[in-house]
Amino acid sequence: MSYVAIPNRMFAHETEYFTTNDEFLMFYHIGTLVIARNPNLARLNIELLNSIMLLDQKNLSRGKKRISVALLSLHSKGYIKIVHSDGELKNNTMLDITIPEIKQSIYKESVKSGGSIYKGYTAADDDMFSRTESVFELKVLTYVKWRSKISYSISFKEWASVLGVCHQTAFSIISDCMQKGLITKHSGDYYTTHDGKIRRETNKYFETPTKQESDPSKEANTVKRSKKNSTESKETRPHNLFGTDYLDENDIYVYFTTTCDLAKEQGRKRIDAISKSSASGKARMDNLKKKANVIIEQENSEKHVMKVYSAFSDANKEHYAIEYDNEQNYRQSKQFSKQDDRDYSYLLGND
Q1: pLDDT at residue 209 in the model
Q2: 13 CB contacts (<8 Å, ≥6 apart)?
Q3: Distance CA 152, CA 33 (A)
Q4: 99: closest CA among 15, 18, 34?
Q5: What is the distance between the alpha carbons of residues 161 and 223, in angstroms, rounded to a whole number?
Q6: pLDDT at site 349
Q7: What is the mean pLDDT of each run of 10 residues along the chain (351 residues)?
Q8: Which terminus has fewer CB within 10 Å in the chain: N or C?
């Protein structure tokens, strides 16, 4: 299953490396949009990010402004590197965005915040994203996944700082996450202080395990019928439509773009089986479809750019050819006009 390596220092709320909710969500989406031949490079623009993130559906212009601000902030904090050829950053400017490799300092070097050390990364996978409905929930799930590995206790004061909200709002967000089954709380034990006062240890939180995404019986029937079809399929691109492993965005992309009827039908059966098996299964399929459509849009955008470039080049060639012909004609006319056709016979004398 694919994932995005979220630098843990993004949660370091007392340092300049702390990220806002917009920045955190954007880093995740950029990580899912990397190109196949380079897992650290994404080619996109503000328009594309806005269509995915929808930060402000009531005011698209304001949403695009927030995306621009978040992009530049992530760049200044060292989480991404932005390269583009335009003089200024516009909504349709094609951007080459590079995410650091795991071995680089953004992951390796530690920073201190609130008495804690922030280092390394947490893998935010497709399943985590499909289970959440807001950036707050994704942040909570990612933070809990990291902290639970060391049995770390988290106070509501810390939750408020990590989520960038007040204490009361943090309490509501954590309560909602527990009600939705995203996380589980292990309440702290009561104890008595040396002066006789009763206190309670800080709560610990753990990620709630997810159930199998699909009904094995439904999947088994589909797989049995697909064994013969897999050898007859004309789809040559790598995919798992006829297999039993988890589907990913590449599989859905192949399903959307294939011209092979067998692969198309098998993909539909698997997606339907998984979607009908559970609410989380349907959410995951919807999320993968969305990602696959983004890949298709990105490809179409690149094809459009190349088409415009090609048309521009052809137009230039034709323009220069015409100029060349005109120049040649001009030179010939100048040569002709320079021929001296005056009569010099009188200089030869009379016969």
Answers
A1: 77
A2: 113, 114, 161, 162, 164
A3: 32
A4: 34
A5: 48
A6: 52
A7: 88 94 94 84 90 85 92 95 86 91 91 88 89 91 87 86 92 92 85 82 84 45 51 78 76 89 88 80 82 80 64 55 50 45 49 46
A8: C
- Residue 242 · residue 266 · CB < 8 Å: yes
CB-CB contact of 107 with 17 (8 Å)? no
* pLDDT the model gives residue 218: 45
C-beta separation of 128 from 142 below 8 A: yes
Structure tokens at 116: 């804690």
Residue 11's beta-bridge partner residues? none
Alpha-carbon dihedral angle through residues 124, 10, 96, 131, given to the nearest 10 degrees: 30
Q: Which residues contact 218 (CB under 8 A, 6 or more apart)?
A: 273, 276, 277
Q: One-letter amino acid identity for 53?
A: M
- What is the structure's pLDDT at 317? 52
pLDDT attached to residue 251: 85
Q: Which residue has the tokens 């698997």?
A: 270
Looking at 67-216, which runs of residues are DSSP E strands?
81-83, 95-98, 111-113, 116-118, 121-125, 183-186, 190-192, 198-200, 204-207
Tokens encoding 286? 């919807």
Q: What is the pTM of this model?
A: 0.62
**Closest of 14, 313, 10 to residue 138, by C-alpha:** 10
Which of 72, 71, 60, 88 minimizes the C-alpha distance to 29?
71
CA dist list (Å): 222 to 20, 236, 273: 44, 21, 8
260 CB-side CA count, 13 A: 18
